[in-house]
Each structure stands twice: as structure tokens, then as C-alpha cells.
Amino acid sequence: MMINVNPTRMELTNLKRKLVTARRGHKLLKDKRDELMRRFLELVRENKLLRRAVEKGISQANAHMSVARSVMSDKTLDVALMLPTQEMSLEVTEQNVMSVLIPHFDTKLKTADENDIYSYGFAFTSSDLDVAVKALSDIMPQMFRLAEVEKSCQLMAAEIEKTRRRVNALEHVMIPQYEETIKYITMKLDENERSTTTRLMKVKDMMLSKEHNYI
Amino acid sequence: MYKIAAIGDKDSIYGFASLGLSIFPVDDPQAAIKTIRKIVDGGFAVIYITELLASQITAELDRYRELPLPVIVPIPGVKGNTGLGMKSVSKSVEQAVGSDIFSDT
Prior knowledge:
- The structure holds 2 protein chains of 2 kinds.
- Chain A is built from 3 helices and 2 strands; from the N terminus they run ααββα.
- Chain A is rod-shaped and about 130 Å long.
- Chain A has a single domain (9-204), classed as Helix Hairpins (Orthogonal Bundle).
- In chain A, strand 1 (88-97) and strand 2 (100-109) form a beta hairpin.
- Chain A is mostly helical.
- By secondary structure, chain B is of the alpha/beta class.
- Chain B has helices at 10-17, 29-41, 51-56, 58-63, 84-97, and strands at 2-8, 22-25, 44-50, 71-75.
- A 4-stranded parallel beta sheet of chain B has the order 2-1-3-4, with helices on both faces.
- In chain B, helix 1 links the parallel strand 1 (2-8) and strand 2 (22-25).
- The mean pLDDT of chain B is 85.
- The interface between A and B is large, with 59 and 38 residues.
């Protein structure tokens, strides 16, 4: 595999410059890939732990919710949860990790008291509902962190894949190609030089023999 | 300022309403796709979706995988849990590393 170029000195200089750039790019991208991978693996570990905790918390809450549903009529439950007092919103900031923009969430609550999660009076509802709502509220911070981490993992995975392809393309295609072409041009130029020298020697011989009547 | 949504069957997501999340009770996959498209434009940054529903519309969810926002997180619902959430983590690992090196842990 070689680039199809004219074997000239100018091409040689250009190619040498390109090779230097390719080598530097390769080194940088390799570093980027390694650092991304290190952070990615850290995040994935956290992601797995968080997911396990959140899934456990939600299924517990769901279990309590099922009990609440069975003790209370559907209508009472609907009414209890119809008008939430609390409203959550997110402030999203972006963080730049090795040129991957990962989101960071800050939660904002509408009411000052973060325990203000019960949108109903306690008279007509089952205590299981309270437990269910409390359980959900307890894992909420973890759920936000999970959203953050999971997105980061997805974005980083995509970036790692891209970077890895670039590194491989440079390492196994571009750089060998340049090296081979440079070698080809150098050989060709050397060959030209040698042929010029021999030609000159031959011409000199011919001229000498003509002057002095050598052999 | 972004909002948070929960999508899925009513029983699974009702509890989130009292915490201040916007809930969208949907059972049908087609309706879910429509809802997601609608709320993505409506300023929602995080969308929690039940695994049952998410497993029916994976193609749609993959579209949002590589966008910075929204974040779509599968969560277990009351029924039909498929382990999709964990699978999606493994998918990321496979994409980045080439094989799922965390599968046993």
C-alpha cells in the first residue's frame, strides 16, 4: 500500500512533514483514548452500583405501593396523588471531560422544605402510601446521579469508539503508508543520483579517450 | 430550567408524581414514542421510563443515546422487568472496550 505520487523532492518534504504530524496525532489520540478509558471504567463501576441500588429501592417502593393500592380504593389514591405540592426542576451544566461534554444536574425544588412530598392529608390514605412515597423520595438523589452517570457512560463510550478507530487508522494505515512512500521516493531519488553519476563518469571517459586517444 | 418526566404504566410511575416529577401514563409503545418526542421538545432533561415500555421502543431510545440531552433512564416497573437497564450499561461497555468485561460482577 503506497500513495501514488511523483517521486520528487517536494513530495518527499511534504510527506515527511505529514508523517511527523501523523505520529504526533497518533500519540495524542492514544493518550486521549487511555485517559477516557480510565474514566469510563470508573464511571461504569459507579453506574452498576447505582443502578443496583436504584432498582432495589424502586422495587421496594413499588411493593409498598401495591399494598397501598390494595387497601385503598383507586379513587382515593387518584385523589391523593392528583395535585402534587412539590415540583422538581433541574439546572443542567455541562462539564468537559477530554472533549466529551457530559451533563451535570442540580435539582431545584419548588417548596423550601424537601420533605414536603406528601400531597395529601393523612386521614384517608394508607400508611403504606407514605412509606412508598418516602422510599421513592429517598432514592431520588441516587436516581439523578444515575441519570448523570449513565449519560456520561453512553457519551464516553461513543467517544472512545471514535478515538479508537482514529488511533487504529493512524497506526495501521496512515503511518505505514507514509513510511513506505517516503522510502520509495528516497530510493528513487538515490537511484537517479547514481545514474547521473555513472552517466557523468561515462561521458568523462568518452571525452578523455577522444582527447588522448585512449583505448 | 429543565423538567423531569416519568413514562410508563400508571401503577409504576404514580408515586413519582408526589415528588414533583411530571408523569405521563402510557401503555402503548406507539403512544410512548409520540409522548417522548413531544416532551423532548418541551424542555425535559431527564426521562425515566419503565423497562417494559423501553424494551418495546429500543430503536427510538437509541436515537437519544449519543445526544447530550435528554437522558432516558430505564427503571424497573411493577411488572415486566427485563433487566434492560443493566443491559444498556453492558452495551456501553461493549461499545467502548470491545467486550463486556464487567458481566460477572
